[in-house]
Amino acid sequence: MTEHSAASPTSDLNARYGRPGRSRRPLLIAGVGVVVLAGLAWLIWAAWVQSNPPVTSQLQGFEIVSPTSAKATVKVDRSKSVEASCRLQAKAADFSIVGEVTVTVPADAPRQHVLPVTLTTQRSATSVVLVGCTTADQHRAR
Asked: Pick from 120, 115, 3: which is nearest to 67 by CA?
């Protein structure tokens, strides 16, 4: 009995129930690491693509010419020679849209291009808003 009592409680449990299986903790940590790295790579890619769009635009100014007409100046910057479509809206004092036009910047135009745009309105406008420009590959107006 002294021989049996000298054995540790752990070895008694191992003898009775068998040895415990290998820990799955390293496999779990490796799996989580792979998922985190894939998510980080996607985040970096998405940030890079969104921060470098093929076309950007800026409304440089507008003028209300008459109760049925407004003029605007739009600056369009393209990172590559692609055709871009830019949409502008004329708005009344109650913020309703009273005129809208889409202008096209051809692919062979200069990459930095300033466009004079004339909008025909249904009634007197108080402002002109640049919705943005899009390309075939960029559907979100910028």
From this structure: 120
